Amino acid sequence: MSEPSPRPVILTRTGTANTLLAAEASKRSVPAFLWPAFSIRLPEDDTRIRETLAGIRDFDLVHLVSPATVRSLSHWVKKWPAGILISAAGSGTARAAHEAWGESLSVISPEGDTAHSGSEALLSLLESRGLPRRLLICRGDKGREWLSEKLAAKGVHVEKLACYERVPYSLSEDDKAKLREAIGGPSPVLFAASSEAFEVIRSAVSCVQGAWEWILSGGAAVIHPRIREKAESFGFRVVEMTPPDPVPAFDCMEDIASRLGSS
Question: pTM score, two decimals?
Answer without folding.
Answer: 0.81
